Amino acid sequence: MSQPHVVPPPEPGAGPVDPEEELTRLLRDLRTRPEGLTGREAARRLVIAGPNELVRTPGPPWWSQLVAQLVHPLALLLWLAAVLAWVAGTPPLAVAIVAVILLNALFAFFQERHAERAVEALSEYLPPHATVLRDGRPVRVEARELVPGDVIVVGEGDRVSADTRLLSGSVEVDLSALNGESLPVRRAPGGASDVPLLEATDLLFTGTSCTAGECRAVVFATGMRTELGRIAALSQRVEHVPSPLEVQVLHVARLIAVVAVAMGAGFLVVGTLLTGLSLADTLSFAIGLLVANVPEGLLPTITLALAVGVRLLAREGALVKRLSAVETLGSTSVICTDKTGTLTLNRMRGMRLWTGGSEYDAGSPPALPGGRLATAMSCCHNVSVDPDHPDDQDAWVGDPTELALVRLATALGPPEQSWQRVTQFHFDPTLRRMSTLDRSGDRLVLHTKGAPEELLPLCTRVAAADGTDAPMTGRDRTDLDALVRRWAADGLRVLAVADRPVGSVTGPGERAETERDLALVGLVGMVDPPRPEVPAAVARCHDAGIRLLVVTGDHELTARRVAEQVGIGAGGLRVVGGHQLDAMPEQELDALLEAEGEIVFARSSPEAKMRIADALQEQGHVVAMTGDGVNDAPALRRADIGVAMGLSGTDVAREAATMVLTDDNFATVVSAVSEGRRVYDNVRKFIVYIFAHATPEVVPFLVYAFAGGAVPLPLTVMQILAIDLGTETLPALALGREPAEPGLMERPPRDRSAGVIDGPMLARAWGLLGGVSAVLVTALFFATLLAGGWSPGADVGSGAMHEVWRQATTMTFLGIVACQVGTAIAARTTRASLATIGFATNRLLLWGILFELVFAAAVVTLPPLQVVFGTARPEAWQVAALLPLPVLVWGADELWRGSQRRRERVGAVAGRPGADRAAVGRSG
């Protein structure tokens, strides 16, 4: 038997089609009937169509991720050094290097290990069971057993198990998981066929929930063929793009590898052919050169610094699931933000009301006990009130708009009578109104609320202040229309409220007959206020050169007003609707995004959000995108930083995102960007600190090689490891906690292609800080040799000269440590002076320096460590010679930074833009 042909709903623009004819054709093509399939036929189709479940593409196994850490370019260099150490006859050194490799790999592996569970979270939207017609009678089956052609029964409280088309009945469904809209929508057989898929009024989709009513519907798609399955497939097809830091660290690792291997190989030749060194000596030299060039502590230091950033962001309300994302936040140049709950409080509030011919401020509403407006608002809603605590408004549950109406009704005063609901006409998105039929004693009254443009034409009377009704005149309608326009221009959402006495109970099918000849009892103007901290956060983004785009499923006018209220688009705001964006070719979208000004994208689909992210990334932007619904998952994964809402977001969005906001607050996103910038700056600072020590470690080996044996080796490989993995690690980590420099959020985002390491940075690290340290350390080494009676070419392999040589290598080691102290203090700032940030503002660095000094003292004074590292106890004059080294290194860098600031000020005075002058002033 061939697989049943799945007939999707007609494409938008297909033209009008008779609903009954279309439904008949669908049943025919699915080879089914309104009574459903037989059990045997369903079993056959299950074999062909497969289970009704979402399929996840498995990710890479854990062992491959661990292996990737072991073959990182820096790790490969260390593997080479270990092999050379073993060949050279120093197994303890080889073992120590291998231990370093394994520790680095394991640490990075466990920090980065994160199981992707986006599709598993999507699977939670599939209910475990469904009611289906089999052999003409309803039975309960597992949802995974549904097949195309099945007829299912959906009732209030059920979650839809497959994509279906209604055959009979009517329901209200919550589509928020797919379209982000909070209000339920009505679904019934028939309806227009030339509308977007999610707006088709006769379709139900997998993962949505039925909030009211009951219906029968025929299944036309299951599993990965459903709308939810399509979103799951989009989420899986989006691959992880390495963060800028990941790319740059890999680039730096390759650069270091090339330099180290080239220098080692080159000096193997030099040592053998030109200097006359033995093969053992040249191998020892090559190993030392490799180990000196490779910053063994770089990877764990970066990982730990990012981990610290993750913890700090968690305290701010931002949970980051991937370490490298902290740095990516710092390079964000565009934030695509949702509106409801992110820019706003998602809590509607009544601002103004009109009743009895007068306008009032809702902050001080009129005392209208028993007023018809208060009665209508207190009856026409579906808010749940805790019966044990009816006065606790914070415990009320319901739609934000209805919550605002009920709270306002409570403020107006209690109704004179108690009302009991008889029936309800649910909110209809087409009619844009809702009604309830309520009884009080022998009175039966219809209470209605809805959009003024829909409700006012149904009103023939206006309630006066004394409670009587007067005919609605043309002048009344003109005045009310003007009032509605004025309130709307102020950004208020306006609802009209009306009532009408009814003679008898009317059935739900007689809505049009019931909702007529109404009396307007009032107008209510409400607003979902922006979060109070958002305007300041938006201003910080603008100061930082970050562009803001609002990408939302809400209406264009609502999104525009909220954007303007919080300061988005102050220099020009354009609104682009969903249909307009869908019809926009790629070139036009690129031109739109390249143009100046900020944009509101309204009624956005999942594909549209991905298109926006792709276009921005193609232009070189680093994109952060917020979202909360299932429909946002692909875009959250595609963006450089996907930001999900922790309070209102779905599990799907939270799993697909890189960062989760525990407070759903846009200001937290901006704080995270600031923290990311600080972390990035600090990564550069400790890279300067670490790289600065390569020069004083390498220069002694160069002196040794070029001297051709006339000068002994100034530093041993074990002493280099003591520096790289012992003395420098804690100060480097402390630099990762350095407070932000002045003006951090007042400079533009760095370019996506900008390297974490650049030429000026290397010149400062290797040339200035490293060069000054190398001169000082080399001078200290020769001073110690000469003071001990050494002469060029003397044998230091044994006897008294051997002890002098040990003393000299010890001073080289201690000299580098002393210069590290000065380098650590200098690396705290990039441009600002130390006086600007304060000497003691990073106490962790002071503790790190103290540990560094204590560790170095232990290495040179404790006998067991002296044996391991080949050191000797220094004399008093040698310790005194170490004291000025930190000040000399820091002072040289301070003078250089001062000259940089002076040059920038001179350039600004000479006529550079004012923004540049401001930046210079902020740099200290």
TrEMBL record:
Membrane disposition: Multi-pass membrane protein
Keyword Signal: no
Transmembrane segments: 66-87, 93-110, 255-277, 297-314, 766-790, 810-832, 844-865, 877-896
The keyword Kinase is annotated on this UniProt entry: no
Main location: membrane
Subcellular localization: Cell membrane
GO annotations of cellular component type: plasma membrane
Alphabetic keyword roster: ATP-binding, Cell membrane, Membrane, Nucleotide-binding, Translocase, Transmembrane, Transmembrane helix
SMART domains in UniProt: Cation_ATPase_N
Catalysis performed (reactions): ATP + H2O = ADP + phosphate + H(+)
Cation-transporting P-type ATPase N-terminal domain boundaries: 19-90
Superkingdom as given in the UniProt entry: Bacteria
InterPro entries for this protein: ATPase_P-typ_cation-transptr_C (IPR006068), ATPase_P-typ_cation-transptr_N (IPR004014), ATPase_P-typ_cyto_dom_N (IPR023299), ATPase_P-typ_P_site (IPR018303), ATPase_P-typ_TM_dom_sf (IPR023298), ATPase_P-typ_transduc_dom_A_sf (IPR008250), ATPase_P-type_domA (IPR059000), Cation_transp_ATPase_P-type (IPR050510)
SUPFAM superfamilies in UniProt: Calcium ATPase, transduction domain A, Calcium ATPase, transmembrane domain M, HAD-like, Metal cation-transporting ATPase, ATP-binding domain N
Coiled coil: none
Molecular-function annotations in GO: ATP binding; ATP hydrolysis activity
Family listed: Belongs to the cation transport ATPase (P-type) (TC 3.A.3) family. Type IIA subfamily.
PANTHER family registered for this protein in UniProt: CATION TRANSPORTING ATPASE, SODIUM/POTASSIUM-TRANSPORTING ATPASE SUBUNIT ALPHA
Protein name as it appears in the record: Cation-transporting P-type ATPase
